[in-house]
TrEMBL record:
Biological-process GO terms, alphabetical: methylation
Record keyword Heme present: no
Classification via InterPro entries: COMT-like (IPR016461), COMT_C (IPR001077), COMT_dimerisation (IPR012967), SAM-dependent_MTases_sf (IPR029063), WH-like_DNA-bd_sf (IPR036388), WH_DNA-bd_sf (IPR036390)
Taxonomic lineage of the native organism: Bacteria, Bacillati, Actinomycetota, Actinomycetes, Micromonosporales
Residues covered by the O-methyltransferase C-terminal domain: 110-316
Protein name in the entry: Methyltransferase
The keyword Ion transport is assigned to this record: no
Example GO molecular function: protein dimerization activity
Source organism (scientific name): Catellatospora methionotrophica
C-alpha cells in the first residue's frame, strides 16, 4: 500500500466516530422511521423531528455522499437498504444498538485513557458505578440494553447442538428468551427454564408467551451468582461468560456444576478470538473485546482460554466446534 492510500485509510478510521455519531443522532431524532414511506424534504423532516432544518440538512447531505441515504431531489432524502435497518419496525433492526452505541458506549470510549492507566472500565469513571449497577438504576437504559441484546439472533453455532435426548434445558442468563424460544420450537419435547434478572425475565416471559411456549417454559428471576435452577440436564450459557473476568466466569460455571447431573452437559456459546491475527487485516475479531475493555470487567477469549475456565470449574470437554464448547462434570 502506498503512502497516499495508507494515509486515506488511516484518516477514514480516525473519522469513523463522526459517522457513527451522526447516524446515532438521526436515530435519536427518529429520522429513519419518518422516512419509512419514502423520501421527504428536509424541512418536513426537521419539523416532524424537532430539529434545525439547516443542521439536519447538512448531516443528511454528508451521509448521503457516503451512500447511506439517497438524495432523489435537492434537500430531499430517503433510506437505502442499509439505513432501512435503522427503523424500529423492520426485521433485523439495529436501531436500539445504534442508541446504545451512541450514548453509553461512545462516552466510555471517550475516556479510554482511564482504562489504559488503571485497567478498570472507563464506564465506571463516566457513570460512577459498574455497568450492571447503572442499568439497575436506569430503567430506560436497561430496557434499551435488554431489547438490543434480545434483537440479536441466536448464535449460528447453536444449530450444531443436538438436544434430541434432553428433557429440560436451562438457559442461564438467557436475556429476553430468544435462544430458549428457538430451542423449544426446534425440539417439541423439551421443557425450558430461563434464569435472568427481573426486567429481562419479564421480557422473556412475554416473548415466550407470544410464541405459544408459556406452557413449556418457566422464567426464574435471580442472579446466577446466587445459584442456578436445578433439574435440568442441559444448561446453556450463550454470550454470558465474556461479560465477566476469569474469577467471576469460573464462579458462574461452578454454580452450574453444583446442579448438573452426571449425565448432563453445559453448552457454552461464545465468539472465540482467533489464536493468530488475520494477516490481511480483514477480521473484525477483537473489536467486541475492546467494547468489553471500556464498559465491563469481562473480555472475549480464545477457545483454549474458555477450555481453561471450564477445567478450573470442574468440567471436561466432550465436544468442541467453532463457537461451541460442550462439557460435563469431570
Amino acid at each position: 500500500m502506498n503512502e497516499a492510500l495508507a494515509r486515506r485509510k488511516l484518516l477514514g478510521i480516525l473519522s469513523g466516530s463522526w459517522v457513527a455519531q451522526g447516524v446515532y443522532a438521526l436515530v435519536r431524532l427518529g429520522v429513519p422511521d419518518q422516512l419509512a414511506d419514502g423520501p421527504k424534504h428536509v424541512g418536513d423532516l426537521a419539523h416532524q423531528c424537532g430539529a434545525d432544518p439547516h443542521a439536519l440538512g447538512r448531516l443528511l447531505r454528508a451521509l448521503s455522499l457516503m451512500g447511506l441515504f439517497t438524495r432523489p431531489a435537492p434537500d430531499t432524502y430517503g433510506l437505502t437498504p442499509t439505513t432501512e435497518l435503522l427503523r424500529a419496525d423492520v426485521p433485523g433492526s439495529v436501531r436500539l444498538n445504534a442508541l446504545m452505541q451512541g450514548d453509553e458506549v461512545f462516552r466510555s470510549f471517550a475516556e479510554i485513557m482511564h482504562t489504559l492507566r488503571t485497567g478498570r472500565p472507563a464506564f465506571e469513571a463516566v457513570y460512577g458505578r459498574p455497568f450492571y449497577d447503572y442499568l439497575g438504576d436506569n430503567p430506560d437504559a436497561a430496557a434499551v440494553f435488554n431489547e438490543s441484546m434480545g434483537d440479536q439472533r441466536p448464535p449460528e453455532a447453536l444449530s450444531g447442538c443436538d438436544l434430541s435426548e434432553a428433557r429440560i434445558v436451562v438457559d442461564v442468563g438467557g436475556g429476553n428468551g430468544s435462544l430458549l424460544a428457538e430451542l423449544l420450537e426446534r425440539y417439541p419435547h423439551l421443557q425450558g427454564v430461563l434464569l435472568e434478572l427481573p426486567d429481562a425475565a419479564a421480557a422473556a416471559r412475554t416473548k415466550l408467551a407470544e410464541a405459544g411456549l408459556a406452557g413449556r417454559s418457566a422464567c426464574v428471576e435471580g442472579s446466577f451468582f446466587d445459584g442456578v435452577p436445578d433439574g435440568g440436564d442441559v444448561y446453556t450459557l450463550a454470550r454470558v461468560l465474556h461479560n465477566w473476568n476469569d474469577d467471576n466466569a469460573i464462579a458462574i460455571l461452578r454454580r452450574v456444576h453444583a446442579v448438573l447431573p452426571p449425565h448432563g452437559r453445559v453448552i457454552v456459546l461464545e465468539e472465540f478470538l482467533p489464536e493468530e491475527a488475520d494477516p490481511a487485516g480483514r477480521s473484525a475479531a477483537g473489536l467486541v473485546d475492546l467494547l468489553m475493555l471500556v464498559t465491563l470487567e469481562g473480555r472475549d477469549r480464545t477457545e483454549n482460554e474458555y477450555r481453561e475456565l471450564l477445567g478450573k470449574a470442574g468440567f471436561e470437554i466432550v465436544d468442541a466446534r467453532a463457537g461451541v464448547l460442550e462439557a460435563r462434570v469431570a
